[in-house]
Amino acid sequence: MAGASSAEQQTPIQKLVQQQFASLFEDISVQLATDKQRYLADPMAYQDFIDLRLRPLWDISSTTRALLGRHNFSAISPLQRQAIIDAVGETLVRYAFEGLEKYSGQQFRIVDVVINQRAAMGWVQVLMESTLIPDIVLDVLIKQTDPEKDIWQAVDIRFKGITYVAVKKHSFRETIEEQGIETLITDLERKNREYYASICTKTQSSGRAPCIPVVK
């Protein structure tokens, strides 16, 4: 990926993408640095932040389709499709909670934006700076999900040349082929439910996501 682009060198699309994602990573840096302990003590407050700032900029449907593969995604029923999208979405949120537990003051800033020639896909390169560990570069794969409104959303993350989808897709597809889509959905839901139950019990939180009591 090319070096960081100056404002003068960026195309209008690059500038647009930079604007859409820069405020997100600025918010993440500020919120985690100032409110980590509050969020650890109040999972519902952290969920509110995720729903407000992270979810709108992530196309969970495209991520799910990439994990399952086009054939598997198209072959399942609309209800199953929505269920697996929801389960993947909650899994990504769980990763955000797990990341919060390990956060140690890192700051996030965009250093480059690359858009393909068709102006439909691209990468946002994010530098994660830390005083405790070596700096880390993350690449966020983005796609234009609404050309009329110029809306871009993330669909995958790459670290050291390996994407999240590339790591997870084989186990997802193997489960579907050997045990069916319902088993995959159930497994993801169970892992998410157990994790959220643990942090909600620990903090004695209840009332709204992710600490909504399960009705038996």
Number of domains: 1
Gross CATH architecture: Roll
- What coarse outline follows from CA principal-axis ratios? globular
Cα(first) to Cα(last) distance is 51 Å
Q: What is the tally of beta strands?
A: 5
CATH-defined fold name? Nuclear Transport Factor 2, Chain: A
What is the ordering of alpha helices and beta strands? Answer: HHHHHEEEEEHH
* CATH homolog superfamily: Tgt2/MlaC
Mean pLDDT: 91
Under CATH at level 1, the class stands as: Alpha Beta
Q: What fraction strand?
A: 15-25%
Strand order of the largest sheet: 1-2-3-4-5
> Which percent bin holds the helix content?
55-70%
The major pleated sheet works out as: 5 strands, antiparallel
- What value does the Rg take, in angstroms? 18 Å
Number of helices: 7
Unreliable stretches = none
